[in-house]
Amino acid sequence: MQTDPARLSERPISSPSRPGPTMQDLAASLLQHLPQAPDLWLLAAAIVIAAMVRGFAGFGAAMIFMPVASTVIEPAAAAAGFLILDWFVTVPMLLGAVRRCDWPTVAPVTLAAMLTVPVGAAMLAHADVLALRWSLSVIVLGAVSLLMLGWRYHGVPGRATSLGVGAVAGVLSGVAQVSGPPVVVFWAAGPQPAAIIRANLITFFAIVSLAAFTAFLANGFYTLQVLALVMVAAPLYGLGIFLGARLFGAAHQDAYRPVAFGIILMSALTSLPALDGWLR
Question: Which residues of 108-146 are buried (b: 16+ CB within 10 A; e: fewer)?
Fold first, then answer.
């Protein structure tokens, strides 16, 4: 049976299959979710500076990164992206910290903080937020003032004290995502050397961050914008962590507490409701 040449000419010519998207195409698509220059350079500078503070002090990066990042990208994406960055990039620091930290105080503080985060969230839902923020700022400013004036406690804190500090940290985390000040004040006011204080803070924040990760995941915070932020920021954050850790290794032990107190003081001042018009 012969095929009619005319019918052959009427058949549609199939186009060659198109290749799938390349890695460069996927990267370009993700980068569209990030801000353009100069906002992108501002975000990059905040990432590096925050990471250097984290590498040196063991805490404080979120206090620097979040106010800046929230002005150029969605606050939820900034928080979720920072959580991933901070956890995975600081794993090398964590490996050393878990061997050096003071577990008899770290364990009860961390456990109590994780259990009382929902209490703070409930307070946030039902209490006067402005009054809560003023109370938190005044408490933190008072505690830091005492420490800067030289107040210290001596001896080993009991388990009840550790649980109490952790409970306060968890409540503050639920109210305003500021669990750092109570634990920093608690450990910095004690007799432990700077290396142990830093290890305590690194371990505490790493474990408590797991609870935050679960909450963010449940609320659908992990988006393409978060993936783009992590992809771009990870090398910069890693570089900053490395530089900060090197600075800590080169600095004298006596320099640690003033730096830690300065970070907490900055956090308390920038959290004052009276400054919302300038900072938010």
Answer: bbbbbbbebbeebbebeeeeeeeebbeebbebbbebbee
pLDDT in tens, 47-67: 998 899 888 988 878 777 877
**How long is the chain?**
280
Distance CA 236, CA 83 (A): 15
Cα-Cα-Cα-Cα torsion 47, 48, 49, 55, nearest 10 degrees, comes to 110
């050393």: which residue's tokens? 96
In angstroms, the Cα distances linking 177 to 16, 69, 151, 181, 204 are: 54, 15, 26, 11, 14
Crossing angle (nearest 10°) for helices 91-100 and 194-218: 130
Cβ count within 10 A of residue 48:
18
Q: How confident is the model at residue 28 (pLDDT cuts 50, 70, 90)?
A: low
Q: Token pair of 152, please?
A: 């210290």
Q: Report pLDDT digits (tens) over 75-99.
A: 778 888 888 888 888 888 888 999 9
**Would the pTM count as exceeding 0.90?**
no
What's the token pair of residue 179? 């669990």
| Rg of the chain taking only CA atoms, in angstroms | 24
Give pLDDT, residue 279.
56
Backbone angles phi, psi at 220, to 5 degrees: 70, 35
d(CA 43, CA 33): 13
